[in-house]
Amino acid sequence: MQSNGPLRASPKPITAADKQSFNAIGMGDIYINMPNRESESLVLLKDILYTPSMGVRLVSISHITAARSTIIFSGGSCQIFDSMQRLLGCIEANHGLYCVYTVKAEMAGYAGQVKEVLTIEELHRRLGHVSYEAALMLIKKGLITGVELDLDSKLMFCSSCEWGKGH
């Protein structure tokens, strides 16, 4: 999950339709496999809330349209097109719901197939504040798996590292 930075305040509560409450403890991006007729499309969902205690992923239609994608509900199916009008997914209705069923990666044994996208700053923090150069070297040599580096991310000043150098 590429994070735009974890939620800085206390966990954000989310109430589901059945009145059950979950806490979002982070925000970021994640890739999902979207059914697309006879195949699947790998789709990046951006700025999602991370709710590990929630058993399902709910996708906001408004977030899809905000990403300049188009959604068409017609004839018992939901079609999702990207901004170039390429078909990303076609989901058939099941008892009035448009559901995408996937096995959790940790249960399916292919957790290594889904890569979390991190900024260099997030990788730096997750690796215990190792130098940016060391973090980059670990990624380039393939010593860290399951993580993809956001190559557009910028190096930032780390106040924690600066504070630690003074002690």
Give the count of structural domains.
Answer: 2
CATH class of the largest domain: Mainly Beta
Q: What fraction of residues sit in β-strands?
A: 35-45%
Widest β-sheet, arrangement of strands: 6-7-8-9
Largest β-sheet summary: 4 strands, antiparallel
Fill in the CATH topology of the largest domain. Answer: Cathepsin D, subunit A, domain 1
Helix content: 10-25%
What sort of overall outline do the alpha carbons produce when their principal axes are compared? Answer: globular
- Helix count? 5
Number of strands: 11
Average predicted confidence as pLDDT: 76
Oligomer: single chain
The CATH architecture designation of the largest domain is Beta Barrel
Distance between the termini: 33 Å
Structural class: alpha+beta
**N-to-C order of helices and strands:** EEEEEHEEEEHEHHEH
Low-confidence stretches: 1-9, 104-114
From the alpha-carbon coordinates, what is the Rg to the nearest angstrom? Answer: 19 Å
Topology:
Blueprint: E1 2-3, E2 12-15, E3 21-24, E4 26-36, E5 39-50, H1 61-66, E6 70-74, E7 77-81, E8 87-94, E9 97-98, H2 105-108, E10 116-118, H3 120-126, H4 132-140, E11 147-149, H5 159-165
Parallel strand pairs: 10-11
Antiparallel strand pairs: 1-4, 2-3, 4-5, 6-7, 7-8, 8-9
